[in-house]
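Our preliminary data section would be incomplete without showing what the modeling component actually yields. Below, a chain of 185 amino acids is followed by its predicted structure, encoded as tokens that our downstream tools consume directly.
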Amino acid sequence: MVNETLKSIEDRMKSSLKVFRADLATIRTGHATPALVEHIKVEYAGVPTPLNQLAGISAPEAGLLVIQPWDKSSIHNIEKAILKSELGINPSNDGNIIRIAIPPLSEERRQELIKVVHRRVEERRVAIRSLRHDAMNDLRKMEKDKEISQDEHKRAQDQLQKITDVFMAEIEKFGKDKEQELLEV
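Predicted structure:
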């Protein structure tokens, strides 16, 4: 029973960490990467659709993204969605493909993005603590219902804290890595 609770929480924390990594990948650095734009929602046939489902996205060089829509009629919607995104980049199209030149970041923009990273790191920490809190409540309920002893409850709490600490360290590491990436010129 306790192991199931801990395994469930660990799986939910892993999932949260995976989402966090994908979220950090969308923060623009000086390098072109398809992750910057692949999750931008584009209005296609009346349905908001992720860009990576409408086009091939590649980064042929460090400062350039190339988007090749599978349906040429969607090119203007894709361009509009990129302009609306908070990336601050300007696409250009030749009727067949969209090119996005990724300009180097100004120092001011780097600092703004670092603040965004810090905010997202803190949001993810709160999410992990919330998951830990839920598990603690489950463990307390098990003890109250006499499903586990006080000793088992204490051991489970210690295990839960160790699991939480591992995920907190991972979040910190990803945040620091992204910060370093933003500081590279």
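The beta strands are 41-44, 47-50, 55-61, 64-69, 91-93, 98-101. The first helix runs from residue 2 to 25. Preliminary results of this kind motivate Aim 1 of the renewal.
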